[in-house]
Amino acid sequence: MPATAPGVALTIDFCGGPNGTGADLALLALLRQQQVPATLFLNWRWITANPSLAKDLAADPLFEFANHGTTHRPLSVTGRSAYGITGTANPGEVYDEIMTNDARLTELTGHRPRYFRPGTAYLDEVAADIVRSLGLVPVGFSVNGDGGATFPAPTVTREVSRAHTGDIVILHGNRPGGGTAAGLVRALAAMKDRGETFRPLPKETS
Ligand SMILES: [Zn+2]
Fold first, then answer.
1. 73 C-alpha vs ligand 1 centroid, how far in Å?
2. What is the average pLDDT across 143-157?
3. Distance 120 CA to ligand 1 centre (A)
């Protein structure tokens, strides 16, 4: 698909770790039922906790797998923290944070992922250069759809519905029981009503 294809890109993070290794099956079923493509940013800890689901999702052409890090740390060469989580401390730790999970994703899909989003979505400039030198595109977001799966459904609907063509929406698929899936149902309906379309992430982004 050309980079200029119109549409909103949905990206779903699966963070793993304590309180974060669940699977929002309602969210995944919704995307499949409505055939809305999404890029799934999988953390190594989430894959380790959900090996058969990860395999199932890898086989579905609706979804593209992307790298959400190995231990879910902010990507830094100085140990800078974000949201109270200590970042990687040097280039070696940056490399490990990217490449341990890169190998796991490659094993699951048969090809290397194209995108990287660190835990907390924070990365400093040197770390971003390392991401690129490893052949990956660092990906942020322009619309915070579910506040880390903390928003109630009406807030998810309101926030996701703000997205227009060219936007990258971030949601979470690892915390079922929140408002993400229920809120997205109504957002998709409203967006489709006004003619919005959905696309995978473009090949080049930032
Ligand atoms: Zn995350």
1. 9
2. 97
3. 6
Cα(194) to centroid of ligand 1, in Å?
Answer: 30
Report the pLDDT value the prediction gives residue 6, as an integer from 0 to 100: 87
What's the pLDDT score for residue 19? Answer: 84
Residue for token pair 């459904």 = 153
Closest CA to 191 of 157, 147, 140, 151: 157
**Correct CATH for 9-193 of 3.20.20.370, 3.40.1370.10, 3.40.50.150, 1.10.3720.10:** 3.20.20.370
Q: What is the domain partition of the chain in residue ranges?
A: 9-193
pLDDT of 4 strictly over 70: no
CA of 59 to the centre of ligand 1 (A): 22
Q: How many whole angstroms from 69 Cα to the centroid of ligand 1?
A: 8
Q: Which residues contact 27 (CB under 8 A, 6 or more apart)?
A: 12, 171, 173, 176, 180, 181, 184
Give mean pLDDT, residues 111-127: 95
pLDDT at 205: 52
